[in-house]
Here is the input.
Amino acid sequence: MKMHKDTLSLFLLFCTYSAIFIVVCIFTILIGYILFKGIPALQWQNFSPTYNSVNVSMLPAIINTIFIVFASLLLSTPIGVFGAIYLVEYAKKNSKFLMLINLMTETLSGIPSIVFGLFGYLLFVVFFGFGYSFFSGVLTLSIMILPLIIKTTQEALMSVPVGYKEGSFALGIGKLKTIFYIILPSSLSGIISGIILSTGRIIGESAALIYTSGTLAQIFQSGFDSGRSLSVHMYALLSEGLYINQAYGAASILLVVVILLNLLSTLSIKYFTKGRTCKS
Amino acid sequence: MLDLKEKLAHGMFLFCACICIICVALICIFLFANGIPAIKEIGLFDFLFGVNWAPLDEEFGIFPMIIGSIYVTAGAIFFGVIFGVLCAIFLSKFCPLYLNKILNPIIHLMAGIPSIVYGFFGLVVIVPLVQYYFGTSGKGILSASLLLGIMILPTIISISKTAIDSVPTNYYEGALALGITHERSVFFILLPAAKSGILTSIILGIGRAIGETMAVVMIAGNQAIIPQSILDGTRTLTANIVLEMGYATDLHRNALLGTAVVLFVFILMINISFSLICRRKS
Here is the structure.
């Protein structure tokens, strides 16, 4: 039965439809405009191995970004995953300690990146004397993505059916082996999508890197060298104001990478969940 | 032997879990230890409520920046909440399944776009638009609010949607049984029932908007004065830090760290109210 709609209902319907329409429009304009202007702006000279004011190459920045992503993930993933294992498998439910850690994780994830930048500057650059360097940047970013990894891993671990664990215990397998051979493999999809999300976060980060790894346009030669990531590179281009086309180029590359990472994360979840349902 | 291994692993897991606490403590210690002395030297009242920011004359009043942050955040919440909540309602109650499959990834993707790209978009699209329609320089509270409103949309949409989804269906069915239309029952029954979840999303949005740096620096205009109208340029707390940290020395540098302390305290207050609301809910 089709109900007759009064004016107010029609108005509310109109509001919701126009809101979603406007949001999708803005988003399409954002992506479309930057890719439309950015992809033609990419030229071979933007990818030469060294940076100077003639070619404004972003290749060093891209290579630096890859280094930073790998090092930060390498540092942060084991700590985050192990921490989440403790929270889910070992800590007592509703204990004060569990509440404290959850509160601190939330706090850490709410701290703005500029505060992370200043903290990294004070602790790693000044206090430990690393200077503007790869190490300072990576350490700061690892702390920044830690809450994200903990949260996603925690959710992934909690969604593992209790039966898996009970079955393993019933066979007399120890807790540690159960965790590493039963629980971790079956929560892999959640953990991997957390890692992919963190990758996106690291690639997009600029405020926290400016004061830790610095803005020098060169490939890291050693751990104590300064270097800029692609986002920082884009910020530097914009603040110099001369290279708007190159900024379009860098922005389009950032966008394409983020879109690809998003696809990858959806695909990984699909892939792993499919594998699991087949096995069971 | 096996027992020892289990104990070692237990200890290691515990240590990793504690790293979050250590990090928050370190951030507090280093930020406060470096920022508080400067605030003391300037004077807490002069620092928080001084209206002049003139590093060369040793005048460090961050009141204009506090006002700027509040204005920009309020504007962002205004745009972000209206559109965000309406979108959440659409996705939760009006959206056909096939459209949901397209829109959900889009919302996800919006959350992943780097803030520097958003800022760039603001600079090349929003600023010229505002310039054209209002005849100002285009950089100011209005542009920054619009852009930040867009940036907090994914947060507001996804959390509000979860809140609306989790309202028991018998509320809705009861309303329908009384002869109310679908739209009215969604707006007048489900929405009030989901209000604590929506409030949570607003609080998280406020935190996101206050802390946003790179995008705001590009389009807020950055004048360190108290703005008189919505089209005036303004400088936020975060922008103040990014703009001057590169060359600041001595007291100036420490005053900027003091700015970060104020920002950090704001964020902590927001986080605490967030977790209080969450606790009350459960």
